[in-house]
Design brief:
By secondary structure, the chain is mainly alpha-helical. About 70% of the residues lie in helices and about 5% in strands. It has helices at about 20-55, 65-100, 105-110, 110-145, 165-195, and strands at about 15, 60-65, 145, 155-160, 200.
């Protein structure tokens, strides 16, 4: 005679600790706002450096050879790839809000998520300004190509050194702030859907004892 099958009991659920969830939401908002302020500080620093450099431009010249042309193209393409990735994430964030019913209220209905959302958007904007500045700088450098007056090679051209710190740091900062924007986007969505929207968490599963 086979033993009677014990029906599986439903997994009990317990209420979420709302105080802990709200604490995590506000903590996420604080981190995102701090990231946005950090990005703004980097942008102010770059603006100050650019203004100082414009009053005393000292850039050495380098030969405008084919390897240099290729290096410039690769660097601009790399910055453009980061720009395209940021456009994609930005479109996903706004696409979720516009396409999913109730998502706008979920993301923008309370202060923590609202702060995270605007911090993410602000970081995206700062990242884009870095790309524009870098692309403009590289285009300006190439437009200043001139003959080097080298008697051994009359056709040799030179350009300002694109590796100078004031220019070379721009794509690095663009990438750093893009990562901050990406992180802020993820924190915003997680906070809205996991910490704010979920009413309960499952309790640990317990196997029923045979009767």
């Amino acid at each position: 005679m086979s033993a009677a099958t014990v029906p599986e009991l439903p997994v009990p659920r317990k209420p979420v600790n709302r105080a802990a969830c709200n604490f995590l939401r506000w903590a996420g908002a604080f981190v995102c706002v701090f990231a946005a302020l950090y990005a703004f500080g980097m942008w102010l620093k770059a603006s100050t450096e650019a203004e100082s450099f414009s009053h005393n431009p000292t850039v050495s010249a380098i030969a405008y050879t084919d390897p240099v042309k290729s290096a410039i193209t690769q660097k601009v393409d790399g910055a453009k790839s980061v720009l395209q990735a940021s456009f994609l994430v930005f479109a996903v964030l706004w696409g979720v809000i516009l396409a999913k019913k109730g998502e706008g209220k979920l993301l923008l209905g309370d202060w923590p998520e609202l702060a995270m959302f605007f911090a993410a958007n602000f970081c995206f904007l700062i990242s884009w300004t870095y790309y524009l500045n870098y692309a403009d700088s590289m285009a300006a450098i190439q437009s200043q190509a001139d003959t080097s007056l080298n008697p051994d090679d009359p056709k040799e051209q030179v350009i300002p050194d694109y590796r100078t710190d004031i220019i070379g740091v721009l794509p690095d900062r663009q990438y750093t702030i893009f990562v901050l924007a990406l992180a802020a986007t993820g924190v915003t969505l997680l906070s809205a859907h996991l910490l704010k929207e979920s009413p309960t968490w499952p309790a640990p599963t317990q196997s029923p004892s045979p009767g």
